[in-house]
Write a structure and sequence with these properties.
Helices cover 28% and strands 27% of the residues. It has 262 residues and is of the alpha+beta class. 31% of the residues are buried.
Length: 262
């Protein structure tokens, strides 16, 4: 019998399994698809990580998370994070920008000024914004190498005695003091269960009498060709909000000569 079974081996499930194994727990990590795969939310080469949140609570979490990423890099002996900073801009939601500034000033070192579009262009000549645009800079932010992060969690989890079974579809769950997870590769029992299977969560939660208003959303990711002869390497990733949508962008990192925008 396991102490915990974790269903779903994306970044949330893999990091949870790793954390439980660090506490000395006997853990089984289940994944319905072959590892690695592209059918969830954790695949791909890059993700922005930031302290720039208007909610102070999120800022406090990131202050801890940034340190934990460094610990994982050291343990896994691999580079998982590229320090770039993040430019946060808006033309309308100035209160959210001020709240973000407050979070950054509490959890980052030094003052965080709000700058106008002219100052943005002065710092980054390739960037051009309307006059009403304001911005602040998150000096702690950067890019996580997403695929490598998931693999590092799984590797270190297994190094600590954790067990991973992929291509293992959960069919239903029988709750109780001892939880039984029935799969197409047999049944497994544990004292506790962690469900981190994203878009497939409702299928499993319904067995437990839990109904959540979960909605699957497709995020369109585009890659824009950089202009020939122009060095984009010094541009920071950016986050732009306008009250209707939020846009993110990264300089050339995943594919040579292409900028990621979503």
């Amino acid at each position: 019998m396991y102490d915990y079974i974790v269903i779903g081996a994306g970044v949330m499930g893999s990091s949870t399994a790793y954390a439980l194994a660090k506490e000395g727990k006997k853990v089984l990590l289940l994944e319905q698809f072959p590892i690695p795969h592209t059918r969830g939310s954790s695949h791909g080469a890059s993700r922005i990580t930031r302290t720039a949140y208007p909610e102070e609570f999120n800022g406090s979490i990131m202050a801890v998370a940034n340190s934990m990423w460094k610990d994982l890099e050291k343990e896994a002996e691999t580079t998982l994070f590229k320090h770039t900073g993040l430019l946060c801009t808006t033309s309308t939601l100035h209160k959210e920008l001020v709240d973000t500034q407050k979070t950054l000033q509490r959890y980052n070192t030094g003052p965080v000024p709000i700058i106008d579009s002219a100052e943005i262009s002065k710092r980054y000549p390739l960037m051009s914004y309307p006059k009403e645009e304001k911005a602040c800079f998150d000096s702690s932010a950067g890019i996580l190498y997403a695929d490598k992060c998931v693999m590092a969690f799984q590797r270190m989890f297994q190094k600590r005695g954790g067990e991973v079974i992929d291509m293992c579809k959960v069919q239903h769950v029988t709750p109780g003091d001892v939880v039984t997870v029935h799969t197409d590769r047999g049944s497994f029992q544990a004292k506790g269960l962690v469900i981190t299977c994203g878009a497939w969560s409702s299928e499993i939660l319904s067995d437990l009498g839990i109904s959540l208003p979960l909605q699957v959303m497709a995020i369109q990711v585009c890659y824009w060709k950089a202009r020939n002869g122009v060095d984009h390497s010094r541009l920071p990733p950016f986050r732009s909000i306008d009250g209707i949508s939020t846009k993110y962008g990264m300089p050339t990192s995943e594919y040579d000569g292409l900028m990621k925008v979503l």
